[in-house]
Amino acid sequence: MDKTVNITYLPKHELIHLNKKAIKYRFNRTLKPKSLENLPEDNKSPVHFSVPVDDARIIRAMIEIKENVKGTLDILIDDFTSLPSIKIPNPNA
């Protein structure tokens, strides 16, 4: 088992941008814009789970918006693959 895992995350500005894009394209899963505006500027929302939908054109991601608050956002696959990630110790190792 690997000693580290890669965690994809969305900085606040990227989360707001991708949510606006999802609303513009009328994707099925979007977040409430007001709830994102109030996040701290240094907020980094980790992706807990993601799965391709719509013939792999879209990734549906479960995101922890802030501690103990999760939401689901549909993201274009090219946008999702360009998100930053960080290696952390594997809690199961």
Molecular structure report:
The protein is α+β, with helices and mostly antiparallel strands and 93 residues long. The chain is globular, with a radius of gyration of 13 Å. It has one domain (4-88). It contains three helices and five strands; from the N terminus they run βααβββαβ. It has helices spanning 12-24, 33-37, 77-81, and strands at 4-11, 44-53, 58-66, 69-76, 85-89.
Please give the alpha-carbon distance between the first and last residues.
6 Å
Approximately what portion of the residues adopt beta-strand conformation?
Answer: 35-45%
Instruction: Compute the number of helices.
Output: 3
Biggest sheet, spatial arrangement of strands: 4-3-2-1-5
Q: Give the number of domains.
A: 1
Give a quick set of tags describing it.
93 residues; alpha+beta; 25% helix; globular
Sum this structure up briefly.
With 93 residues, the protein is an alpha+beta fold.
Per-chain topology:
Blueprint: E1 4-11, H1 12-24, H2 33-37, E2 44-53, E3 58-66, E4 69-76, H3 77-81, E5 85-89
Antiparallel strand pairs: 1-2, 1-5, 2-3, 3-4
